[in-house]
Records
---
Amino acid sequence: MIDSSTSLLASQKHDIVRFAMGSPANEDIPVDVFREIAVTHLNPSSFTYGATEGEPQLLEALVDYLSTTSEPTSYDRLVITAGGMQGLDLACKIFVDPGDLVIVESPTYTNGSATAASYGAELLEAPMDADGLIVEALPALVSAAGRSPKAIYVIPNFQNPSGTTLSAQRRELLIKLAHDWNAIIIDDDPYGPLRFTGQDVPGFQHISPRDPLVFSVRTFSKILAPGLRVGWVDTDPKIRQLVINAKQAMDTCTNVPAQHMTAEFIRRGDLSAHLRRIRSLYFDRKCAMRESLAHSLGERITMTDPEGGFFLWLRLQGEDAMTSSTALFETALREGVAFIPGTAFSPSYKFDNALRLCFAASTPDRIQVGVERLTRSLDLARSVDY
Amino acid sequence: MIDSSTSLLASQKHDIVRFAMGSPANEDIPVDVFREIAVTHLNPSSFTYGATEGEPQLLEALVDYLSTTSEPTSYDRLVITAGGMQGLDLACKIFVDPGDLVIVESPTYTNGSATAASYGAELLEAPMDADGLIVEALPALVSAAGRSPKAIYVIPNFQNPSGTTLSAQRRELLIKLAHDWNAIIIDDDPYGPLRFTGQDVPGFQHISPRDPLVFSVRTFSKILAPGLRVGWVDTDPKIRQLVINAKQAMDTCTNVPAQHMTAEFIRRGDLSAHLRRIRSLYFDRKCAMRESLAHSLGERITMTDPEGGFFLWLRLQGEDAMTSSTALFETALREGVAFIPGTAFSPSYKFDNALRLCFAASTPDRIQVGVERLTRSLDLARSVDY
């Protein structure tokens, strides 16, 4: 008996449904195009030091591409970074000094808040609802904190982990408050181009063009391929010079072959085509996940209904709310499904009854299997609890 | 007349002899091999998130490769970084708090000292001679500073910019002092594998194996290709976990395609062959530069005689010592030769009568042309000075 259950476990482990990582599925990354570009477009200059601000061909391709979006920009505002993470590191390195107050969404992206904390920030967790960060609540929170924040870290579209989108009214109010407080808005938007339903909400750069208090962090990780580690920041030209100086002492320049490959990918127009394809794919996957969850778990959970991006935020209800998602994680892994427990998204470990589920990286069939396994895990957890 | 001199200038500018950048020549980077590896070895997993500590195949290839050198190591001590620069950033982020004293060589690598300063370090510049950092002088300097250093930043082999190598006796003394002070030795050694003459001096890791106070920063930038942005740190396993945590909030992971290409390059044994080839090349270039300088400038300069690496350190003597190398830089550029003025290597802008010359990136013929142009620049500067 032990042998057979062990081998069953092993076979399940090899077949885990991956709702955990915030990463596109391998099969949705255009690897063949990258290989072809590597042969035709990598040259000696791809392997030597590049400019710290980024390779000219990538900056040009990016300015061209962004001119077709709702957030056009110019060359003198951009710095290429090692993914969005380095954009956040740069923002915090430049703006956050020990003891500074930084407002973060609750829940928030762990590595974003961790970076602010690593520069000595005191984090103020601010609540969210279905329209994102409750901006109206900030003045009272700031007043209670007794001092103005130095920065406000926000993921406006299809937030990680909640999947919610900050409403237009709240964006406008947030800009007003930022000016009252002279605080930087760290506008982290990795998922914005992945809207598959509903209407675009104007971005901070659109609402308040060329606002020096808006520091925008972008990345190709979610819209193209995370392994490239290529992203960018879009900021006031004076701040851009600080970004370049800081990046010089972080990694000299972003890896050059990946910059050249990304530039050529955009230049061919493949990025727009790729985005159309994955938006449709991710919409189907989100619908599949919500339908499976509603069917299997019904009243036992609430869940968000994101209009784009990667993530659903699920909260356990009723008797299941007694189940710790942190404890559930191991049971679920044994059952063959992975997710991220809610506490990972709060510096003070809130949300132990919540789970972040990534729908973007699994097919609808696999999603159904994953949700069945998750349901079984919850049943097992409840039978232990009671 | 104006037209012809302008076009002469333009033609010279396009033909500048590049003694400035610390980078291998484009033609000495094995681009064809990388292109071939890109086609045969990049796969979907090359484009998704990698482990923060580095890709397993690169870590394994590196452990194998290092087992053939004087500094063998183990998997549990290594973290792959975005070049050596990120290794320095990680060291400073982990060990340096505002107000901490950090000893740096004088002259030193600008971005190394700048990184320490960016975390609030107070820099103590310590003098060097032909055997590198004068370690015997440190106790008196530290005593005068009134407190122990938190870290000692040292480039032991073929130092940037001086080209000198720290003697074995001084390395041993430095380890002893580090233990007296409980200070971290930031052992930055990008050039160690590029020894082309003389005997290897034992490294810190060799002298004091598994010493938690030795934090070693390494890179493929100088020995293979800087554009890859792939390096590594070799440190105590307990500190390694701090490195992984810190890197997680810097860039999540190092770009994955470059890690896979580097791993395959090493696995094929091409790194050893490549190192043999470039060592011989750089030896010829160093000899050519020293001969040209001795012939053209003789008593007007002193220069170091590096046994490896990239750089010669040249100091102006006699009447020429009145010439500012910072001012000379523009004249030299007009004459068609680039170098880095000495002040760039000191936080307090010492060494205005010194120049860093990179011999590694130019052929002996081009080196001769560059030295002739440098000589003409010095003649011009002197005729202005007097």
---
Amino acid sequence: MTWAAAHGLQVAARSGEAFTFTPAPLAVMPTAYPKVAFEKAKAVADPMARLYANVANDREWLHETLAGVIDADPFTANLLQLHKEVDSPQTMALGIFRSDYMLDGPTGDMLQIEYNTIASSFGGLAQRVGAWHAHSLARLGTEDPFLKAHVEAVTGGAHHGIPENPTTEQLAAGLAAAHKAHGGGTALFVVQPGERNTMDQRHIEYALYSNHQVPAMRRTLAQIAESGRIDATGALVLDGQAVSVAYFRAGYTPDDYPTEQEWAARRMIESSDAIKCPTLAYQLSGAKKVQQALAAPKALDRFLEDQADKDAISASFAGLWALGPEADEESVTAVAEAMEHPERFVMKPQREGGGFNTYGAAIAEKLKVGAHDKSLADSILMQRIMPPPQPQWLLRAEEDPLRCDAVCELGIYTVFLGNATEAPLNDYAGWLLRVKPETVDEGGVAAGYACLGAPLLV
Amino acid sequence: MTWAAAHGLQVAARSGEAFTFTPAPLAVMPTAYPKVAFEKAKAVADPMARLYANVANDREWLHETLAGVIDADPFTANLLQLHKEVDSPQTMALGIFRSDYMLDGPTGDMLQIEYNTIASSFGGLAQRVGAWHAHSLARLGTEDPFLKAHVEAVTGGAHHGIPENPTTEQLAAGLAAAHKAHGGGTALFVVQPGERNTMDQRHIEYALYSNHQVPAMRRTLAQIAESGRIDATGALVLDGQAVSVAYFRAGYTPDDYPTEQEWAARRMIESSDAIKCPTLAYQLSGAKKVQQALAAPKALDRFLEDQADKDAISASFAGLWALGPEADEESVTAVAEAMEHPERFVMKPQREGGGFNTYGAAIAEKLKVGAHDKSLADSILMQRIMPPPQPQWLLRAEEDPLRCDAVCELGIYTVFLGNATEAPLNDYAGWLLRVKPETVDEGGVAAGYACLGAPLLV
């Protein structure tokens, strides 16, 4: 744990402007992970980013696809409305995407859980988790009988080590590319007022300055509403400086918009010539509803040409079904199965951040109203993936280590800079491995369910 | 402060095995420091280390010099007794020395405060303080009107930047050199049970492993007494591993020896063939009494040959006078002056760690008994150095920044490996700058008086 603290693998001990930090929740043991699946996730990162950028640039399709959730999901409705009203002079957008996958034990498939297009977090910490595990393996892997036995048990003996993880540098490089493309004076990190995961963000800020000499300011939406303005050239100006790239680490949940002021700030940023990470369109394209719509037969044909790309992406899609008025025949079949076997499904609302999914008997309860009921329109039904468990020790600061059987979720980061016609940047940007007890349904680290871990490729 | 936390510039928030950390106390502004004085301190590091190693190897002189303090200082008496009793098979010793200096405003001299031969701390953090200030200067030095004005005010305009600070790597390199010279299996960090400054130590441990693949274990004296033994070859064996180098970050204060057990552990280590950092002799040579004795006329002739070395060292000595039965004529004169002008002096007892010196009116009170009184034998009288103050902001976690006029103390680290006939290693190992309000007498960071800062060479 001291290694973690010594290398900035930390979160604030309390929310707000606190200066006391505590190690991030950590999975002590490396997690054996199939090299083939890891490489597949890396390989599909490029077409997946193009897919989502194309979705975001397809205004018509996006609006139509999300039209059905407006009534049931006022937050998405607000974002959509803003997107319809605002016309930005800036066509370039920056995506710091993270595609999350789980292995399905029964089938051996690696299936996408979700595609994050806003505030994909833990990039600043994940790199350090990898370094920590690599350090432990090098330092103790052959000496410590406990770690040695564990590695042998989960890998069967041979392994390919922990993959390099360039998250911090790559995310900073993405922001720097956007900064350069814009030419403005400062990057802007849009942050939540009570953020505890500040260090994750600071690592990126420091790398942005150290590696690219790009300064950044941190502001909440409320602060931006207060002191920001758009000048005659269309630039977003804060404290006398033009913003080159606005990087959102806030704005993804309704809680981030307690008053009209925050919406006004969002509108101002979107209207400006700053490059947004993400734009409203990018954010909207990360909706669960979009994910479900893309999984429909032939849906990918609208956005991608290369068949190999489409096949690779399709192979990573789990079963996904619309609910509410848009539910089709397949939805009805799936709902019927879910009433009988809710353990095979998960119900997901639009909102981001972890902690809001429905599992088990509660699914059957919610589905009682029938697949087409309007109250379900903000949710999708998804195949429940059954990842194979591994023995693990989970460590939270100030708590006893928890011995458990744990499952993991692999995230693959991409940095993408592009507009409707070109994409000067589309790079793999590292990994995140979240590990949680098999018995826990939810997966968010910040929400308190999962720990940060590292894949040991086998 | 988040930068500090992100880069491991931290201390534990509580004592003991806590995992919550808080930034170390920091001086926000760089401290203008004369380049000439800084270079002088660097240059004298080599002969100063040889001087102290020669003192440590001169058993007779050391015992004689310290004989006078035995009655008044039972802790030094115990160390001395152990040194007389124990004969180690290991002649090589490792010194991680730190020579502390203050600038005397009235004379412009750079004068030695003390020479630390055991547990010279903050090497692991000082490097990060330098990096933090260099980062701030690069990031904000030309933009931030506050920092810019400060730098111009204290430097007069031009400066040579903040010197590189290789402390972590150099201290680790010293330990690695000792490890290699010995050939044993593991380094041993001897630590205090309730240590808060663990991160400082961990940085060295991690560098020792990363850069030299030398593993280290951390043990308290009590734990060593419990599980350690000396095998037939003379090796100190802990948990089945032979100790190559025993690095003391404990054992310098009587509080570290609450029972006979801790003394037994110290005896075991000293008796073993492990290379000690420091040996009892090195530790004893760091006594204030030795410092005072070396300042006596011609004292250096016994230990050094080169006149330039002796001159450089002498020039760094402040006025130092014996007290108690050994007080001489000069002591009597100094005591008389101190009764009249106690503000010109400081009274120092043997013990390490900061917080035990006597200042001002209290000096006159203590000296009432007369220069030769036995009760004074554990102390020396020293010229009070009057460093020139500079404006500063001192920052402690969870407290408001303190605006004050501050003075500083420069420490220069040396790593030294040698015995009576050879010294294969004698290297400058970086700097430490401690900054404290002008109005505060004591200087220890761990004791809560000073903050970590960085010199901006002018």
---
Amino acid sequence: MPEKVLIYSRFPKAQMERFGQRFELLNAAGKPPNEVFSAEQLGGITAMITAGGTPLGGAAMDMLPKLGAIVCYGTGYDGVDLAAAAQRGIAVGNSPGANAASVADIALTLMLATTRRLLSADDYVRSGGWSGLKPSPMMRPQAGMLGRKIGVYGMGEIGRKIAARVAAFETEVGYHSRSRHDVPYQYFTTLDALAEWCSVLMIAVRAGTDTHHAVDAGILQKLGRDGFVVNISRGSVIDQPALVAALTDQSIAGAGLDVYEKEPHAPDALTALPNVVLSPHIGGHTLESHVAMQGCVLANLEAFFAGKPLPYEVKPG
Amino acid sequence: MPEKVLIYSRFPKAQMERFGQRFELLNAAGKPPNEVFSAEQLGGITAMITAGGTPLGGAAMDMLPKLGAIVCYGTGYDGVDLAAAAQRGIAVGNSPGANAASVADIALTLMLATTRRLLSADDYVRSGGWSGLKPSPMMRPQAGMLGRKIGVYGMGEIGRKIAARVAAFETEVGYHSRSRHDVPYQYFTTLDALAEWCSVLMIAVRAGTDTHHAVDAGILQKLGRDGFVVNISRGSVIDQPALVAALTDQSIAGAGLDVYEKEPHAPDALTALPNVVLSPHIGGHTLESHVAMQGCVLANLEAFFAGKPLPYEVKPG
């Protein structure tokens, strides 16, 4: 008989297909598990799959008294209360790096689309403005990438991949992270200094209490009127109202966002702006990245059920 | 007294500013020069600035009997009848490579935006589809860049810069051009073989009679249903009706276009399509690329008026 696995977050069916072939899945689909399943059903469950951004605290863990493994689909695990899991002897796993290339790609997509004003460009062609020789501010040349100073905030796997891609555009790359890494880019000891130096800030830092609202009004002001911010990490890293204000009064030039403070919700004040490019958290959303993430999830679950340590385990602290 | 220079094509004022500081400009602004200026005025002109894509044949050259130099603003010179110029002893110059980085960047912008369906993504967020949990085909994962086979057609300065950028996305890069180059990418002896191999075709080949409609229905069919085509070169390289047909019946997945057969006109059949990203020939349109192009134009004109060979001269054949 296949082992039982609870699906805690709401996932598209297709993403769970490979797990369903191997395990018996109980799909809570984002609802509190005790509203969907009986205490008896939940009592038999020892492992769950969750999305790293979904809040998962001690109370939810206690609905599954035999829970031994929380396996995050994706790189992030910021929603999981690691201390509560550790207290209960629950191992936490993730899918490190499996989506790094795909997320780095969306960061570059947003960077290029915002700095080259691609949405306005497409609209200008489609609406007939171009063929009608209608003047448009979008036809004014803007700063491109050549020699531009790009700052990468965070130098984990995704940050490194962003930096490598950005460097291929003949830019200058700088970065800030807690510590200096062995990478060929200029290191800045503070985010302030990085923001002062660069004109495009690429946020690739892990979400957490230490990075909550790290990109605030002050940082945005340092980016300046020619400045852009791109976020593919977590919405919580940016003070979203401060960003909306900076974009609205054009104290920065634009933003490219794949993540938001409250997903799947992008505030009206943001969606009304012409100088942003918005995507619905699709950074890791490629076929190859899902295959790789599923591979990590399966490896974690297989190891757990075999009584072995998780191969991709998240250590608290 | 400053030398006189005719401006043959229609250019934005800002782009001619540096020339106006140095020369006396007679601006025909895209009209036949003899409709704008008297024969006497034209008789005193020995040099002109034109856009490479603007048709310029022997008849127009003969309106300026003392014409000695045609200086193209930009890399292209496909509109200039080089044989007619040579016959009349007129030197032709261009701005080689000055916009290569900027054009390569727009190629990558279009490649990423089409393959990651950025316009649909932005629309899905802005229209409230995402926050309303409205199902959307755009949320289905698609092939990303990792390991993808990207074909570059043309290996001049722009082609090389495209290839270097594309390679940073952890792709496989192949190319076709008339001859093999000393580059670390797989060489294909025919465009057919390249199209058969790759899933994204990046057109970076110089326009000319030999490349006119080189990308036709047959090549598009070889790209296949997962295939994309990106064109930043000249519209004439693609059989545009064949492209529209392939996009409409989805025998290819999508296209990113910065250039069109008849500019500034993108046909309705194209602008109505959801699986294209369209930009109004802004490839070379960055501040740093204009500064560099203006530098080449000035260098060509200064040399000409000093009786020296053009430093950036186009040789016929």
